[in-house]
Amino acid sequence: MSHIPLVEILHQQYGLPKDIASESAATFLSTFRAQPDDETYALDEWPAHLWRNSLPKNYRHIAKKVSEEWLKLRFQYLALTPDVIHLLETLREDYLLGLITNGPSRAQWQKIDRLNLRDYFDCVLVSGDLPWEKPDQNIFLEACKLLNVEARTCIMVGDKLETDIKGGKEAELGGTVWIPLQQDEMESDLPDFTINKVTELPEVLPASPRLKRSAHVTNDC
Question: Biological process GO annotation list (predicted)?
Fold first, then answer.
């Protein structure tokens, strides 16, 4: 998620000067990405705490309201679009689908549940519940085990070379499909296929599908 919408909220709704709004938003996003959860806090209280530490002292009283605005904005940004929902529903007619995501358990399951992702996948693995995270091959092999399929009959679809694609390779999956987040990332020999967006996935799948797993990673913003 870009910090620009947050800057506009802080500036227009709460009166922060734009430079201070930009610095506060950048600080919050940086600290949240470094630590998306702290189990000593209630789940929704943790981002409010981070906002209190990111805002100037004379604006810290708005931290809870800003945190609520941010959560709303975050899930709007992460929500599956109708074309992606259609893709997942179509793929499930011929394939088993698994979701593997890195991150602390509570925060990731909040995201999974808010976005109704369990409606579209046959298994969901969160690294915070397990002794491994991507790119460790074991988390990919665990997904294959849960789906009762062999690794060589599976493909990994993801947007991060260093975790999704590298991990899929190390697990010796049947193929890897990379979706770069930025156009300047397009040069890499690591994935078997590179596509511009997830809705292009059917173009690189077999014409006569066998039972396979396609794991697509949501952006961990």
Answer: N-acetylneuraminate biosynthetic process
The listed CATH number (3.40.50.150, 2.40.70.10, 3.40.50.720, 3.40.50.1000) that belongs to domain 82-203: 3.40.50.1000
pLDDT at 221: 35
Rounded Cα gap, residues 146 and 132, in angstroms = 15
Cα angle, residue 99 at apex, residues 97 and 101 outer, rounded to 5°? 170
* 22-71 confidence digits (pLDDT tens): 999 999 999 999 999 999 999 999 999 999 999 999 999 999 999 999 99
pLDDT for residue 125: 97
Which residues lie closer than 8 Å to 153 by C-beta, 6 or more apart?
A: 174, 210, 211, 212, 213
Chain center to CA of 151? 22
pLDDT of residue 3: 72
Of 47, 156, 147, 146, the C-alpha closest to 101 is 156
Nearby residues of 69 by Cβ (< 8 Å), 6 or more positions away: 9, 13
CA contacts within 13 A on the Cβ side of 76: 8
Whose CA is closest to 172, among 193, 194, 146, 150? 150
Q: Where are the beta strands (DSSP E) in 82-210?
A: 96-101, 123-126, 155-158, 175-178, 193-194
